[in-house]
Amino acid sequence: MKKIAVLTSGGDAPGMNAAVRSAVRTAVTEGYEVVGIKRGYSGLLDEDMFEMNYSAVGGIMEKGGTILRTSRCEEFRTEQGRARAAEILRKHGIDALVVIGGEGSLTGAMLLMEETGIPSVGIPGTIDNDIAYTDMCIGVDTCLNTCVENIQKLKDTASSHERAFVVEVMGRSSGYVALTAGIATGAEAIIIPERPVNYEAIAEKIWNERKRGKINCIIVVAEGAASAYTVARHMEHRIGYETRITILGHVQRGGSPTAFDRILASRMGYEAIQSIKDGEFGVMIALQSGKMVRVPYSKVLSEKKELDETLIKMADILS
Ligand code: F6P
């Protein structure tokens, strides 16, 4: 095995650059030739790739987004698309891939390997933290810090005006971001797809606190549970606050990665190359109880990551 390609795919996540930097530098040091593929699987199908050396990844760790750029590629979802990708990789003499992305991207890598024999190692990069068998994905910590910073600002203006804010955060079908951002900001209510929502009970609790003299209210809702508009409709006129809506949106995906994400991504990039060196393919690098481990794609992708029940119970007590 001589030549490795690295790509980032799906929704970007802060820290992806640190993973690219680490994978490239480790691979070069181990004697591999390295190619960067632009725009994920779309760039692969367009043969949009370039040689990368040790200095090609200088000064990128602190940058948000991904210097390799990214995309969600329809053609790669088809077997024909993946067969064409394999031909292109063989034509360019690429022996293995490092794929940095979320569930869809890792599924693509798994199918590519099963159908065409192109070996790969995956690195979980998504702000959603919805990938099983890893405690954290790259980008989650930075996303949470962005949520906390912004919700804290909303709390300031909420207090001045004695208002409620319904804040919608990302996470696709996972409530992880909403739950943890809600805990970290002391939100009055957290609405997540993992458990049924009882608008009556939430409204009553907020109204009682309002009567006791509370002057602000933050309700965090996961996009996968309900829209902020729906939640606000259920709340206004029942909670004693004028209600405003904020959808945090794609700010959650940007920004310079936190120290945690930089270190996590560096460890994962390094471990991905160790795995290639050991000839262990078809695995995702994961963080489990502080350690780097390798988990087969088939295992990772056949399970839905569950939210920690204790966190949910704790949030109920603390909010
Ligand atoms: O998977 C990351 C994510 O940001 C989700 O939280 C969100 O639902 C989705 O991507 C948004 O996708 P897009 O960038 O295509 O708008």
From TrEMBL:
Q: Which residues form a coiled coil?
A: none
* Domain Phosphofructokinase: from-to ranges: 3-275
Main enzyme class: transferase
**An MF annotation (GO) of this entry:** ATP binding
Question: Per its UniProt record, what InterPro entries does this chain match?
Answer: ATP_PFK (IPR022953), ATP_PFK_prok-type (IPR012003), PFKA_ATP_prok (IPR012828), Phosphofructokinase_CS (IPR015912), Phosphofructokinase_dom (IPR000023), PKF_sf (IPR035966)
- Cellular component annotations (GO), alphabetically ordered: 6-phosphofructokinase complex
**What cofactor does this one take?**
Mg(2+)
Q: Where along this sequence does the record place binding of ATP? A: 11, 72-73, 102-105
Report the principal subcellular site.
cytoplasm
The record ties this protein, via Pfam families, to:
PFK
Instruction: Please list the residues that bind Mg(2+).
Output: 103
Q: For ADP, which residues are the binding ones? A: 21-25, 155, 186-188, 212, 214-216
Q: Which family does it belong to?
A: Belongs to the phosphofructokinase type A (PFKA) family. ATP-dependent PFK group I subfamily. Prokaryotic clade 'B1' sub-subfamily.
Q: Subunit info?
A: Homotetramer.
Q: What is this protein called?
A: ATP-dependent 6-phosphofructokinase
Q: Which organism is it from?
A: Kosmotoga pacifica
